[in-house]
């Protein structure tokens, strides 16, 4: 059975938008509140023009020459920021300047762009701060900087050219409504970037490195992650021993393989991994489960630095396995580097409860009109009807041996179902406190 929730980790993001959309102000605020997490690079064109006292309207050839000379240094700055492990946020990009060049008929930069277009690193995403042209004009007048004022006619031409540029380059463009209450706008930007404010008193020295979050579908793993996301960092570190975290899940990998099967089938070829099952998929190639574990291990190795440091983060790795050897096989296939630093939290519900919650969620989503999928009970039962967790872990908490490595675990009963934080908080804390005690005993002194 497959379900899907996309989680993306980004290293380099560029903000764009009309003049006075709030790019500089937004990035300045983010730099102030997240100095340990991000590096902000100013707008290349404006920085070059200001430093060299260039009029951006009347001295276009001189501006182009200065931009071309600056590109290698900007490339170094971006690469250095990414290598530091921080998120690189950049204000505007040369695709925007190309769009302005087309709007102003600046053939010199249009020709030069062809030579420098591939010189800069490509970002993971472009974020557009979206405001109406009329609001841009009003804000430009209010800030009273005539040397950078752009009129309506040229803004309209620029936006048309910029939109064409994004389409031609197949970019990952994310729009945020910047014409809204400041607090709502900033919260949306923070959520999109995955930023969490961390107070100075957050006890990050006493947090888990890696949590393997296991359990049947709909056992409550996603709810656990959502609860932790909504808990302030200092409180989360103190009460649950979880630092700012990144979550990995093998379902997106699995889903992608099922979608690839659809493509093979549409080409008249045989499906490789799955078959259709009433709007969803059932896995037919049992090697897929080992592939998923090994792919997760690869993803973790890309996150952990060469020195093995997570830089004050917790990594949560979520997956479910069924069958008489599901978890036994998974632990034998995981990277030893993961097992040496991991704890296991198994979220326990019966198969009947797992099935009930799956059906309830499907009905709720269907009623709300959202796209969702369900599978027949026989498919769910064949994959997850039994698992071997309690064959491996006989007690509520303790350690299991995998690849000669002792891994602490805790089994958390998650029945009856609850959405009340007053119930979930103590439930999570009790399990994680036991797990933390076991984990600390394993740490070298």
Briefly say what this structure is.
With 445 residues, the chain is of the alpha/beta class. It is built from 18 helices and 13 strands. The chain has two domains: 182 residues, 3-Layer(aba) Sandwich (Rossmann fold); 239 residues, Rossmann fold (3-Layer(aba) Sandwich), CATH 3.40.50.300.
Give a verbal description of the structure.
With 445 residues, the chain is of the alpha/beta class. It folds into two domains: 12-193, Rossmann fold (3-Layer(aba) Sandwich), CATH 3.40.50.300; 204-442, P-loop containing nucleotide triphosphate hydrolases (Rossmann fold, 3-Layer(aba) Sandwich). It is built from 18 helices and 13 strands. It has helices at 23-33, 44-51, 60-83, 94-104, 107-116, 133-143, 152-169, 182-193, 221-229, 233-240, 251-266, 287-303, 326-333, 336-341, 351-368, 377-384, 389-392, 421-442; strands spanning 12-17, 38-41, 87-91, 125-130, 173-177, 210-214, 245-249, 274-277, 280-283, 314-319, 342-348, 397-402, 405-413. Strand 8 (274-277) and strand 9 (280-283) form a beta hairpin. The protein is elongated and about 75 Å long. The two termini are 44 Å apart. 36% of the residues are buried. Residues 1-8 and 365-373 have low confidence and may be disordered.
């Amino acid at each position: 059975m497959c379900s899907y929730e996309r989680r993306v980790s980004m290293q380099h993001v560029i903000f764009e938008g009309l003049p006075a959309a709030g790019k500089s102000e937004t990035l300045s605020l983010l730099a102030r509140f997240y100095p340990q997490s991000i590096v902000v690079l100013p707008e290349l064109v404006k920085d070059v023009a200001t430093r060299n006292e260039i009029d951006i309207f009347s001295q276009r050839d001189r501006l182009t020459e200065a931009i071309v000379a600056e590109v290698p240094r900007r490339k170094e700055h971006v690469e250095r920021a990414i290598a530091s492990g921080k998120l690189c946020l950049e204000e505007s990009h040369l695709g925007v300047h190309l769009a302005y060049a087309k709007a102003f008929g600046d053939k010199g930069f249009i020709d030069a762009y062809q030579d420098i277009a591939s010189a800069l690193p490509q970002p993971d995403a472009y974020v557009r701060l979206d405001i109406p042209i009329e609001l841009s004009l009003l804000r430009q007048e209010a800030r009273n900087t005539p040397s950078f004022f752009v009129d309506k006619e040229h803004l309209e031409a620029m936006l048309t050219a910029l939109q064409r540029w994004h389409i031609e380059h197949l970019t990952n463009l994310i729009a945020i409504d910047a014409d809204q209450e400041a607090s709502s706008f900033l919260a949306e930007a923070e959520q999109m970037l995955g930023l969490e404010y961390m107070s100075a008193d957050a006890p990050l020295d006493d947090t888990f490195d890696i949590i393997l979050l296991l359990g049947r579908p709909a056992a409550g793993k996603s709810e656990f992650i959502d609860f932790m996301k909504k808990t302030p960092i200092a409180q989360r570190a103190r009460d649950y021993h979880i630092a700012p975290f990144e979550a990995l899940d093998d379902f997106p990998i699995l889903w992608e393989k099922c979608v690839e099967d659809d493509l093979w089938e549409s080409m008249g070829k045989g499906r490789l991994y799955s078959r259709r099952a009433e709007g969803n998929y059932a896995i037919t190639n049992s090697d897929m489960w080992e592939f998923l574990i090994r792919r997760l291990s690869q993803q973790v190795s890309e996150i952990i630095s060469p020195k093995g440091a997570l830089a004050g983060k917790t990594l949560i790795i979520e997956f479910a396995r069924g069958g008489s050897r599901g978890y036994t096989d998974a632990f034998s296939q995981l990277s030893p580097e993961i097992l040496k630093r991991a704890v296991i939290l198994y979220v326990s519900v019966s198969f009947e409860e797992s099935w009930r919650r799956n059906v309830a969620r499907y009905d709720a989503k269907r009623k709300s009109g959202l796209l969702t999928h369900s599978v027949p009970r026989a498919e769910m039962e064949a994959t997850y009807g039994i698992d071997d967790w309690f064959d491996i872990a006989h007690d509520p908490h303790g350690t299991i041996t995998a690849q000669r490595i002792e891994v602490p675990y805790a089994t958390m009963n998650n029945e009856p179902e609850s959405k009340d934080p007053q119930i979930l908080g103590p439930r999570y804390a009790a399990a994680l406190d036991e797990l933390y005690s076991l984990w600390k005993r394993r740490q070298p002194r």
